[in-house]
Amino acid sequence: MYLKKFLLSFNTIEFKNLHKWAIDSIDLSPSSNLVVSAGRDSLLVWNARDGALLKTLEGHLLDVLKCRFFPSGLVVLSGGLDMTVRVFSVETGQCARTLMGHRGPITDLGIIDKGVEVMSSSKDGTVKRWNCGRAEYVHSWDFESGDVNSLSLTQDANMFVVGTRNGEVITCDQRTNEIVHRFNIRNECTSAILVNENWYAGTKEGEIVCFDLKSRTCSSKLKTSRGSITKLKFTPQYGLISSFSDGTVAAYPNIQASPHSSLEFTGADCDPIYDFSIVESTLFTSCRDKIVRKYNLANVFD
After folding, report:
1. Where are the WD repeats (predicted)?
2. Which residues contact 25 (CB under 8 A, 6 or more apart)?
3. What φ, ψ does residue 11 adopt, rounded to 5°?
């Protein structure tokens, strides 16, 4: 039995004046002192404590759909509707590299080790691994399964998993560039992640599927009533965290043993949470309502 706690809007800090339009993506730097957020109007770097704008990163011709910090916290990787992946310096705000080769909008990003190589997925149905120094891709996977909606790497980056519009969850080995396993979950996969010997997938219909790669069997399914799943992330401390199109974020400590969430983060009034980022005990969410919400999870169960 799990004790459920709600972190309501009055327990959060809201940043309301950064973007004029919906905020599609957000990431917290490894040191937790900087935030990068992306939307239709801009790509911004700002202070995580008080929301003070530090840099506007210019270069994308259309909406910026994804943004991620490099491990150093001094470089930002972004992907846009203009089909490009870009590398920006946080210190100068300048675009250092433009990676061109996709034929559709960028849907997700991954960073390998310190960032010499990065990865991107696209609505063109492919995933590409890029060499940032040479500004060219070194390998491309075409899964022939419709849009690739999500991309997630293991911590050592040896493996990655994608979720596709056609409902496939596909696991690949970077060392051989080969597909290890593919499985159709029968609903559009909006997010997929690898955790040890399992992958977790979220669907447009609000279902979370857990698959055991060792036994090649589906070990659990959870049907939620929160709308589409927009992102999944696993943390050792809080378990599986999922954001939803109804404006909530929930943490499931052991979804294979219990369907109950232990934490629920509210504040958005039925507006979808498009992205979230968590570092240690700090969680940031980006929402269609143009508001970034910051939650402090420290001592939440005390």
Report:
1. 57-98, 99-140
2. 37, 38, 39, 64, 65, 66, 67, 274, 275, 286
3. -100, 10
* More confident call, 264 vs 201: 201
Which amino acid belongs to residue 223?
K
Q: What Rg value do the Cα atoms of the chain yield, rounded?
A: 18
User: Which amino acid is it at 274?
Assistant: Y
**Domain edges within the chain:** 5-296
Q: Alpha helices of 4-118 — where are they, by DSSP H?
A: none
pTM for this prediction = 0.94
- Where does 5-296 sit in CATH, by number? 2.130.10.10
Question: Are residues 161 and 179 in contact, defined by beta-carbon separation less than 8 angstroms?
Answer: no
Q: What percent of the chain has pLDDT over 70?
A: 95
Task: Report the half-sphere exposure of 244 (CA within 13 A, side-chain side).
Answer: 23
Tokens 């069997």, residue located = 217
- For residues 71 and 280, give the distance between their C-alpha atoms in angstroms, rounded to a whole number: 15
- Cα gap 89→87, rounded to integer Å: 7
Q: Tell me which of 63 and 41 has the higher pLDDT.
A: 63
3-state secondary structure (DSSP) of residue 10: helix
The pair of structure tokens assigned to 154 is: 């293991």
